[in-house]
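Thread: Modeling a multi-component assembly for a lab meeting

Hi all, long-time lurker, first post. My supervisor asked me to bring a structural picture of a complex we are working on to next week's group meeting, and I have zero experience with this. I have the sequence lines for every component (241 residues in total). Could someone generate the structure of the whole assembly? Inputs are pasted exactly as I received them:
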Amino acid sequence: MSGLPRPLAALAAVTLLSGAAAVPVTAGERTPQAPPVDCRAVKCVALTFDDGPTRYTAPILDTLQHRHVPATFFLIGPHALRYRADVLREYRDGDAIGDHTVTHPRLIRLPLARVKYEIGTAARQIASVTGRRPTLFRPPFGAWNARVRAAAGAEGMPVIMWSVTARDWKYRDPPRIEHRVLRLVRPGAIVVLHDRYATTPPAISSIVRALQARGYHLVTVPQLFATSTGLRPGMVYHHGP
Ligand SMILES: [Zn+2]
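Re: Modeling a multi-component assembly
Sure thing. I ran the full set together rather than chain by chain. Output:
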């Protein structure tokens, strides 16, 4: 835990103004490096966190804030409604926010109408908090097919997979999570972690420090692709340049 919660005044202003409709807040406070990083020219890595927010999100945000780095969060819609302050903090800090469905199903088993519901409804739930629709989609369990791509594309979202999985859902052991990420990471990596287990936040500070010591720039998923291919709705991405 580090420092005080950031601009309480800003948050208060949002709360006062929001009423029925969410009001966009200014994003980008924790932007990593200025001018923007060119991930074709330097080593980049994008840490991503799925399934939140939960009570384990805030300690991760504290660490990211302390290290002045952004991440990408793929939110479950009802969790976003329950942990609104954490979603607003992610947005305000300059983290990227993606859609991770309403009920976290294995979408490839579902008919198109249900797939559309899962993606579209979660997008609206997230937007009701931030005032902006998410621009990224990650399918639960990484399970996608043509229907999932089409439904994400229809919502204007690319499908974001990963190149490194921390297996934090399995190990529940901070040193083991850390070692696995640091062993597998390569320039352009998208690393999947989860902000739903107590054992993940304690691993994050060491991971960030070790990556920075190796010369990595930590970026959001959109930043990872900003100077190369960009991200196109309905396309699937596993790693950056
Ligand atoms: Zn998930």
